[in-house]
Amino acid sequence: MHRASEIRCTECVQVANQSATVGVRDSTRLAGPPISVSHAAWAQFVAGMGMRRL
Q1: CB 49 within 8 A of CB 32
Q2: Does any domain span residue 2?
Q3: How many whole angstroms separate alpha carbon 24 and alpha carbon 38?
Q4: How far apart are CA 39 and CA 10, in angstroms?
Q5: What was the pLDDT predicted at 49?
Q6: What global pTM score does this model have?
Q7: Closest C-alpha among 12, 18, 31 to residue 2
């Protein structure tokens, strides 16, 4: 596993797989508001990224 600080990433997010949702937040703004999405929505997002539909 890599950390954003190790690879000097400036556009990274942190993802937390929770029981009912997936939590997402900007890794450069830890105090900023996180968002929560359903597992289905997260799966669609990841699939779309893989197919470059987003």
Answers
A1: no
A2: no
A3: 11
A4: 26
A5: 86
A6: 0.67
A7: 12
Domain boundaries, position 30: 10-50
28 within some domain: yes
Do residues 27 and 15 touch, judged by C-beta distance below 8 A?
Answer: no
- Domain membership of residue 38 (yes or no) is yes
In-domain check, residue 35:
yes
Q: What is the pLDDT of residues 1-54, one digit of tens each?
A: 445 555 666 778 889 999 999 999 988 888 888 899 999 999 999 999 888 765
| Residues 6+ away with beta carbon under 8 Å from 4 | 12, 27, 28
Count of the separate structural domains present in the chain: 1
Residue carrying structure tokens 């997402």: 24
Output the six-digit token pair for 53: 């539909």
